Amino acid sequence: MSNKTGIAIVGSTGYGGVELIRLLASHPQVEVTSVISSSSAGTPITDGYPHLAGIREELLDDVEPAKIKEKADIVFLATPAGVASKLAPQYLEAGLKVIDLSGDYRLKSPQLYEQWYGKPAAGKAYLEQAVFGLAEIYGDNVRGASFVSNPGCYPTATLLGLVPAVKAGWIDPASIIIDAKSGVSGAGRGASLGTHYSELNENFKAYKVNKHQHIPEIEMVLGDAAGVPVVTTFTTHLVPMTRGIMSTMYATIQGDRSLSDFIGLYKQFYEGRSFVRIRPEGQWPATKEVWGSNYCDIGFAVDERTNRVTIVSVIDNLVKGAAGQAIQNMNVMMGWDETLGLQFVPAYP
Amino acid sequence: MSNKTGIAIVGSTGYGGVELIRLLASHPQVEVTSVISSSSAGTPITDGYPHLAGIREELLDDVEPAKIKEKADIVFLATPAGVASKLAPQYLEAGLKVIDLSGDYRLKSPQLYEQWYGKPAAGKAYLEQAVFGLAEIYGDNVRGASFVSNPGCYPTATLLGLVPAVKAGWIDPASIIIDAKSGVSGAGRGASLGTHYSELNENFKAYKVNKHQHIPEIEMVLGDAAGVPVVTTFTTHLVPMTRGIMSTMYATIQGDRSLSDFIGLYKQFYEGRSFVRIRPEGQWPATKEVWGSNYCDIGFAVDERTNRVTIVSVIDNLVKGAAGQAIQNMNVMMGWDETLGLQFVPAYP
Amino acid sequence: MSNKTGIAIVGSTGYGGVELIRLLASHPQVEVTSVISSSSAGTPITDGYPHLAGIREELLDDVEPAKIKEKADIVFLATPAGVASKLAPQYLEAGLKVIDLSGDYRLKSPQLYEQWYGKPAAGKAYLEQAVFGLAEIYGDNVRGASFVSNPGCYPTATLLGLVPAVKAGWIDPASIIIDAKSGVSGAGRGASLGTHYSELNENFKAYKVNKHQHIPEIEMVLGDAAGVPVVTTFTTHLVPMTRGIMSTMYATIQGDRSLSDFIGLYKQFYEGRSFVRIRPEGQWPATKEVWGSNYCDIGFAVDERTNRVTIVSVIDNLVKGAAGQAIQNMNVMMGWDETLGLQFVPAYP
Amino acid sequence: MSNKTGIAIVGSTGYGGVELIRLLASHPQVEVTSVISSSSAGTPITDGYPHLAGIREELLDDVEPAKIKEKADIVFLATPAGVASKLAPQYLEAGLKVIDLSGDYRLKSPQLYEQWYGKPAAGKAYLEQAVFGLAEIYGDNVRGASFVSNPGCYPTATLLGLVPAVKAGWIDPASIIIDAKSGVSGAGRGASLGTHYSELNENFKAYKVNKHQHIPEIEMVLGDAAGVPVVTTFTTHLVPMTRGIMSTMYATIQGDRSLSDFIGLYKQFYEGRSFVRIRPEGQWPATKEVWGSNYCDIGFAVDERTNRVTIVSVIDNLVKGAAGQAIQNMNVMMGWDETLGLQFVPAYP
């Protein structure tokens, strides 16, 4: 009856899934027709998420492709690593379009996946089919695609901050150091000592130094932009807050580039892209300034003493770093305006 | 050109004003045509709120009624106490509809206002004209009104939690005790020692015990519901979080009423009102479950040992407790569906 | 060689145990000679608590009474409910003095214990032997005792705030309503969805309304103070912070009592007790003002309109609500000054 | 009567001053005989700090040298930049020993001070007399000194993390990049929009990129260690927490150095220094693990792919970064054990 495109969300009981529900609720062209959870199928989603009372009261569906195909045209996979590699092929074969929010189809090299994720890689054919959905960089590939792999949260903030300068040859790719910080929701909803309130509140800590599985994803795209392999230093930290990622990036400048040159370069690079906002001189973005929205805000400092540029990039890890970017990819895949249903003003304060 | 109703927001640089901007950005029937600040007129709002970059770039307007009337049909006053009492009459006389978010027109008694606010009261004629805009209770008065006084944040959570039981005679009005807790954004954007980060983080404190200016507002409406004057005990606390109010309320039950009786009574009372959600047995709402939305969630416990009911009511103080409720009032005033532009899913987590 | 009294801590890997280690490190009369954990025996405590590096490097001991007796004279039991009821008798029989921080020996009625804790009660003889160690109220019993049951965190804040007025007959015991709020560390170190960072941060929630297992403990002592059985309304809430409890208490005043009467009564009642501080008129304590210390701060408001008194009492739940009070009890048991090793200035901010 | 050394604290109503009061309360060799505030002299310190009730009830003194000399032998200056440069000479001339916690005497070059602080520098003679009190590096100079300038909070965490490697020539000084993060208490107690609770909670932001006044202090000491001038890239961020600094540092390794080489080098360098703890392989310190204590914890990662070392150093900014280190300096000046009165176990959680 409805002319809207039907959407299924697999992994609805995780933070990524529940954020898709929030954001898609006001999308003008689609309707979420199936919320799916293999672990909680048959129970109402409001059992685990009372905030959805009166909004989504129906029972959770199971993951079977045929059943999903009856209700939906597009599937979002908001599942942990290792699950999408099994489910995505079935959904594609059933004729569904698939957007995978996990890491399973981001790395084109199965060897790299197995090395960094410690799990069997997805099949080669599907790896090749999956388009890396960083729409501001690879939008042409996303357009019309039926299988998109949504970038990781850290790579999104980091790559949007680095690619224009790397592509322009303005920074030395070998000099790149990335100091990244994330709110705790990036760790998902699974309870553990590492995400226990009393351990994280009033605490700031480093983790997985040089070992985060987002490193090869970042280096894959930077290498593509630089035209040569790139190796980076990448540190991740947990911030005592729920949402938000900041990537503070350092690199040695090549050529004679001022602060306003950098600002100009990025403004030009992202011209017409609504979700990247370049900050004026002397202003650096804070994570709260993009909270709840699909923006990525970027600011710069150029230090003549050291000939280095400092690039500060922020996103909401659950929106631009996950569910929002996935919807943006859907919009581009479908040929819709990429901002459709995503024009949220950041919630401030 | 646009067929949308023009909106002016006075006090745009406060948290209430900036939340109106956020919420109204996606309202289908209106357009914010003037954002106004007497203190910052002539400068861009993005100076103080960089999160609005690319969203609202124009300069702030001044408060003059004639200028506003050229651009707008409805004015929201998100100004501190003592300001609306001066501005509202001018705007009304200029033919604008006015929704006042401050406390200036809530109390019908000038004496009470002066006693609790320590400022000169608004003029008697306008006090009488102003409709108290708790739409779930006084919706009939709001419909078609041109001047609405938006309830306070604490009274909203508290009254939605108490009025049905008081009206039904199920609780003894003389026994009501209200223990309220608020996030810090309720104190506004003005910096002070009392809202200094290091003083509030990892801290929980009581303030204005028995002295909060929202007390007479609560008692005015409870008295109206009870048909007799009501005096309450009301305590306010600051919670180390930004948004959210919880009102935990205690009263002695009159008659033989079970937990499911209370749930039934409230469900019936709020039937058809989209923004009040009644929780099932054994479930109490948490403030995060309404974060960023216009919902008021209410849960109950009945203690047979003491013959008391405990009522727990939560809202987002900046939405249902301020900007969202003001927009709801606008919708009702204009004869639109009261949920128009307000169907936000709470942002969780 | 050392003349110090040897101390064993059972349950060292919980928050209560690790706080005992922190506080006892500077106690002039004792030395912690054994840190014990049944689950982690044989591993260093720094594996789970790197903050103890360089402070306590030795391996964790096991729970055997004979081994403990070789090293220690006093045992602190910082174990979950249901464990102390099994261990305490063995340690007492081995000739050790025992201070139990769990709920196993607080309620003198096995029936009440089984009803509220849902576990088998401790043996009757030991229940009778265990002294309820609220030293400001029952100090005479604690002196010279060899088995003390340390009060719960909520009861400590609540009872210190209510007993003087109840004993004096200044408030109606049947009117008492207790609205309590706690930091998250009270839930211990076990990871669960209910203590997951992203669920609690920027959130305030009620839990176990009328059902918390501390209710019978509070009513036992209030009944003792009143001379008649007392039934209360008691609500618990989780505050997004790590440490701190506030109990906001309401009661109807009996007789003609002013605010300064209440302040005078409490100052007199607690004269000579270093850890209870009574606040002057118009000042209510905040939890941060006792953070890290053994203080209980109490403030009052008297409302002539309702004839009710509001009593606000705060403690650090891990110090005065657990480890600090246990050490205070040890001091009193041993005939030492009750403040020995406990004169910490609150950590502010 | 007391044989203890008398201590005066100037600037007692700031966070540094109040932390000195907390820490010195349990120092066995000294007694705080005068707490001083030019702005609040004559009023009790408990007016602004109720947590000191029952601990320090006396009125605040004024800043006059003669009066102070009557009561004290040592003065701690916990005043804002620009104040100590005026007061310290008077106190030294009055025969008092002085420990200055501000930035006024850290930089030996008046030009650098004026450039980075934007205020007139202190007199040259006193600048030369002031010993830079990073006791782990310059302890020999501190011993017996009568005028010590206490290092800044960021420099303390940063320099303890870098000096051993720079001195050993294991890292290229020109490659050093410092990404520093601080809790909000480092900004002091003065209320401002930048430290307003609702602006900082659930927010992470960069500030003063390449412009922080601690940069020349860091470079002064690094240059001293390297034997050549050093220029660094230094970024500061605000973390939504009260206490704690983490400095994440990056540098290119010179020579063939493994992770265990670095750990060994630092363990040797800090041998016998109680307050620096070196973490084992694969463990990075978190700020909470030093909360409330005088520890500086340091961890390492070596990346063979990039030939860079990542060094993570944490302190409590109010203790090792201010008051605790000042007391440590006092201990060294007086020939006492440097840990006297500072053996606090970190408060965890």
Automatic annotation (TrEMBL), chains A, B, C, D:
Q: Which GO terms fall under molecular function for this chain's record?
A: N-acetyl-gamma-glutamyl-phosphate reductase activity
For whether the record's keyword set contains Hydrolase, the answer is no
Q: In which pathway does it act?
A: Amino-acid biosynthesis; L-arginine biosynthesis; N(2)-acetyl-L-ornithine from L-glutamate: step 3/4
**Cytoplasm listed as a keyword:** yes
Q: Which keywords, in A-to-Z order, does the entry hold?
A: Amino-acid biosynthesis, Arginine biosynthesis, Cytoplasm, NADP, Oxidoreductase
Q: Which SMART domains match?
A: Semialdhyde_dh
Q: Which domain of life is it from?
A: Bacteria
Stretch forming the signal peptide:
none
Spell out the reaction equation it catalyses.
N-acetyl-L-glutamate 5-semialdehyde + phosphate + NADP(+) = N-acetyl-L-glutamyl 5-phosphate + NADPH + H(+)
UniProt xrefs under InterPro entries: AGPR (IPR050085), AGPR_AS (IPR023013), AGPR_dimerisation_dom (IPR058924), AGPR_type-1 (IPR000706), NAD(P)-bd_dom_sf (IPR036291), Semialdehyde_DH_NAD-bd (IPR000534)
Q: Which HAMAP family match?
A: ArgC_type1
Q: What is the protein name stated in its UniProt record? A: N-acetyl-gamma-glutamyl-phosphate reductase
User: Which organism is this entry from?
Assistant: Paenibacillus chungangensis
Query: Could you read off the lineage of the organism from its UniProt record?
Result: Bacteria, Bacillati, Bacillota, Bacilli, Bacillales
